[in-house]
Each structure stands twice: as C-alpha cells, then as structure tokens.
Sequence to fold (771 residues):
Amino acid sequence: MLKRLIHEIHRRSLWQVLAIYLGASWLVLQAVDTLAGALSLPEWAPPLALFLLIVGFPIVLATAFVQGGMGRDSAPGGAEPKPAPASQAPASPPAAERGKGAHHKIFTWRNALIGGLASLALLGLLTIGYMVTRTLGVGPAATLVARGVLEERATIILAEFDSRTGDSLLARAATEAFRIDLSQSDAIRVAAPAFIARALRRMERSPDAEVDYDLAREIAQREGIVAIVGGDINSAGGKFVLAARLTSAETGEEFAAFRETANDSSEIVPAIDKLSKRLRERIGDSYRSLRADKPLEKVTTGNLAALRKYSQALQAIHSRSDFSRGIALLEEAVVLDSSFAMAYRKLGVELSNRNESRERAVEALGMAFEYRDRLTERERYLTMATYYNQVLGDRARAITAYQNLLDMDPEDTWALNNLAGIYMSVREFERAQPLFERAIRADSSSALEYQNAQISLMGQGKFAEAETLLDAKRDRFPENPTNRFYSALLEAARWSYDKAESELRAMIEETRAFPLFMNQARFGLASVLTARGRLAEAETYRSEVSAQNEERGVPGAALGGSIGQAFVDLFLRGDTATAIDRVDSALESHPLSDISPLDRPYFQLATFYAFASDPRRARQLWQEYEAEIDPDLRGDDEVARHSVQGAIALAEGRHDEAVDEFRRSDVGGCVTCTLYPLALAYEASGQPDSALSVYEQLLSRSDPFRLFSDQGGGALTLERLGQLYDERGDWEKAAEYYARFVKLWKAADPELQPRVEAAQQRLEEIFAARG
Fold:
C-alpha cells in the first residue's frame, strides 16, 4: 500500500502534492482537536500537532522538488510525460543527474511518509505518557489530586489578593474574579464568602475583617481545611503582574505557583482567567472542563469598575449584613455593565430574600435569565431555577434545573436546599427532608440548612426531632440571631404560645443592632399576641413593622400591614365598620396607583372586601389584578386565586361554590391558612359535620408556620368547636375545647373578656351537670 501511495504521489505535480499535504494537515488537526475534546487531552496537543505539520511542510516541499515535482515537464492534467523512444534514450545518465544521487536517497517520498507517521506516533506516545503520569501522580505532570496532596472536591480558602498598586478595590475585584473562575473547578470547592464570615464570627473576629493570607491560613487550620490560595497584584511601567500560589494551611508548603502579566487594566480579567486555569490544571481539573469553560469576562464582566462594585456588594452582604448597601452596590454594578448577569441574579435573590419590591426582583431575575449565557454553568442553572420558580411559578422546570445541577455536583448545597424548599412549598416534607440532611453533611457550617430541616421535621409532626436539630444548631451557631426565632416557630407549632412569646421578646432585645432581624421578631410577636387575644399590644408591634417598611421604601408591605390589622378588626373584634375605615384610610395614604403593579396587595385587598361583605369591590380588584399583571409574571398564584374566588362566592351566597374554591386553595406551603374560611363555607352551606371536621383539622394538622398562620383563627376555632359539640350534646368534647379557649385567651384584652367569661361559665355548667 505504501508503494502504491508513493507511486501515486510521483504522478502528481508540485502544486498538487502541496494541496494534498495541506488538505491532509487540516484533517489531522481536526482529528487531533476532536480527540483532545473527547479524551480530555492537554491543551498543548493540538498546537504540537500543528508545529509538527509546519516542520513537515518544507520537507515535503524539498522532497517534491528533488523527486522531480518541479524539475520535470508535466503533461496537462498532471499526467506522466510520454517516454522517449528507445532509440533516443541516452546510453547513460547525464552528469547533472548523477550529481543528485545523495539528495534522491534522503528526500524520498518513502522517507517523508515514514517520518510523518513517526512524528504522529511520537505525538501520540508523548500525549499518552503525559496523561498516564498526570493521572497516576508520577513526575512533573502529576496533579495535586493524583499525588494525594488534595482530596477530590476538597474545600480550599481563597485569601484576599495583596495589592501593591495602592488600589485596594482593584485587589478585591481581582479576588472575586479569581473566586468565580475557581468555582468552576470540578476538582475542588472554594469556600463561599458566607462561610468565611461565619468562621470569623466563631473566632470572635469582625466578619468584615480583610482575609489576608495569614488570616486565611488561621481560618483554614480552625476549620480543618487543607489548603489556601493567596495572590498579589503589582503594577510596573503601566503593566500589572498577577501571581497566585496554592499552599498548605498546616505547614505553609507551596504546592503550586503561577504568574501572569496584563498590559493594562483592561487585560486584568483575562490575565486572572489564565492564572486560574493554570492553577486548576495543576490541581487536577480535567482538560475537558478547562476547554469547555468560557473566558472569565464572558461569565462575569469585562468591566473592571462593575466588578469592583460587585465585590463590594458581596462584602457588604456577607460580611457586614448590610443588605441595603449591598443591594445599592449591585444596582450600580448593572448600570456600569447592563449585561452583568451574575450581578442581576444576586440582586434579584437579595431583593426576594429581604421582601423588598417584587417588581424590582422580577426585573433583576428576568435580566439575569436573559443573559444567562454569560454565566458559569452552575450559576446558569441556579438562575434558571430561580426564574422558573419565583417569576413564572413553574415548579417542574425549576426542579429539572436543580436536578441538572445536582447531576454536575451531588453535594451542591444551594441546589439541595432550594430543591427541598420547592418540595416543602407543596407540603412534600418527607421528600424534602433527605435533601436538607445531604446539604448539612456537605456543609455543616451553614445555619440555613439546619433551619429548613427543622421546618421540614415540624411539617411531618416530628417535634422532638425538630427540637434535637434546633439544639444542635444552637450548639454550632450560638450567636446566630435566628436561634430564638426558630425556637418560637417550634413552640407555636406545639401551641406553646407563652414560650414563643418569651423567645420573641428576647430576640427583639438581642437584635436591636440588626433591624432586619428585629423586624422579623416584632412581626412574630404581633402574631403571637393576636393569637392570645392581646390585640392592642399586637397592633403596636404591627405598626412598628409597617413604619420600618415605610423607611425601607416598600409601600406595598406597609399597606399590607394595615390590611392585616383590618382582618383582626373584622374577625376578632367583629367590627366591620372600623375595619373598612382602616383599609380605606390606608389606601388614601398609599394609593395603588403609586405602587408598582407587582407590589400591590391585590389578594389581601380583594379577600378583605369580600369578607367585609363588599363582593363588588373585591371583584373589581381581582379584575384589575388580571388586567395589570402579565400572566407570565404572576408566579404561582393558584392558592390566592382560589381563595379570593372562594371569599367572593361566600359573600355572594354561592356557598357550594365557595366550598369548592376553598378546597382547591388548600394546597401550597401554608398547611392551615385556608381551613378556617373553608369551615365557614361548610357552615353556610348547611354542612355542620364537614365544618366540624375542618375545624378539627385546623387544630390537629402539623403546621410549621402556625406562628403566622394562626392570627387568632385558633382561638375562634376552639370557641366554635366548643359551641358545636355543646349543641350536639357532646359535653366532654365541648368542655375540652371551651377549656382550651379559656386558657388561650385568659389574658385577652378587656373587650374580648365577655367571650372568655361566657365560655368559662358554660364550662362550669358542664362540670356541674356532669359531676
């Protein structure tokens, strides 16, 4: 076959031979590039193949010249010239031909082909040898994971870059860019800023402290982390020199060190990209993942000023808990780079988590989703899941996105926690629980997963296990300001409102320096006091919450607080006129037209007016909601939609329809929210047995958020059950519920005491009659 190929080459002209060589070279390069991607070969394999082909080009050219591709006449089309007649053939070769014998022996097509094949074989052997030694941990090519220096998926700490440029913000931005690229590693994990802040608090250090190399090493030693990455950025002659080194946290031994140069500030992010990838290669990242990663400026921002703002925002949020400042900095970052998807995603999440404007949160999450191709793969899945769940209300697609992320990294705590949260939102507590447990095992330094796992256990009625987990969280995070809040949730779920009240009062005192947490405690305390019939005091705390919402610039939430107080007037005081006046006055202070559509409390307002016997106004508000809000931006409004329709149907006397709507609204995360109106609808429709069953469910269901869902409904249910069983002549049951009602409202406001006294009197009569 080789002879046939050589013979075929002899028949071609020089230009044809060169065209064949270039075509074959292109095919070889394509094959090497494909194999490099499929087999995760080193990045130098394709360039080395190109080098060998370039070296081979002059050899092929010389061989073609010597072998006559340039010196002989060629027939048209490249055909061989006709041989001379035998009579005209020279008796011996000319002297010139005899002088070229040595060249003909060296530059032959056989030698050229064998040399080319040998070069490719050498390339293959070099690559295979390199990959084998790299994987086995032998020689200079060995990765740190293969050598056993680092465990696969081990956590490392990234210290703040040391700036010798006089620009501390530049160093912080460089650090954050380096963190983003390292976070794409499939060989290691990078400790998150929140992890560092929690570690500093445990060390009784300011969470805002600059984590330089020495402090990072101290944190690593305390937290059992093996290695840290430190770096520095210097300027010289208008250029920037960036360096990074990976060292042992225990001994300070240097495992790897690299350096890159940027000609000016616009090249800093690309230089960090190269620096990080070189470090990741040495640690043990696969070449496939390194090749697949987009350039750093494509998954963050090429705008250094925007990156500075983003890094400052993370510092404010995670280290100082200054969420307002962090949100403001994120908004400045997206102004500087309108396609900065990572900043948009963080902005949307923080606005949602802090119950800020939904309009702003939806806009930010929408922009992050639009520019999701400018995110790392992990951030992209998180962005998609958040957008599907919080904006579109499409749980199925959100679940798929989180599952895709868990396929990439089964220990991704954000994906585990958020996926479990979706299951909890549809009351699948048993399905959520193992996901929270996996998240705790993956990162026991975060209190969030402990808290959510506690809620999941409470939803299953496993209060003893929930208390054990809460105790474990207190031991691990003794200074966490939410410890008392989650204790109050547990006590309220067990109907221990006195203990819940005590915890929330203590939390208010302990969090006066943290307005967000103090407001959370105030709202919880207002709910507990309402449940216990102490309405005047509850209104004081509810007003403080509304005032704080006014200060935050969230008028929709402030209006919602007034509506909530009006429900108390309506149901607990039985004062419809005062309730309507309260809402009308609040609407004069905060007209809906002054509130962005997505922040208007349409559901609360429509439900209130329906129960206040004004179904016409309720229907108008519902129609306005459907006209104003884009269906794609309503989220999952199924519960609210059926609840509002049920309230309107009940107000209009369509009792059976009201029952159906309230039953359909009995889904979602709130376990007991719609049971009281459902029981009212059953009573109105003449189905007392069904009403009694629903009232019983309201008391017996395990509701992890009873602290907020009760709002006096528990007391009304106890009172009504006592009356219903009394009417049936079931005095034992009647006495049970009367007694529980009296105990719950024993310290209720004077205006409610006549009802307590009536229940107490009837209880005494039952005792007297029954002996």
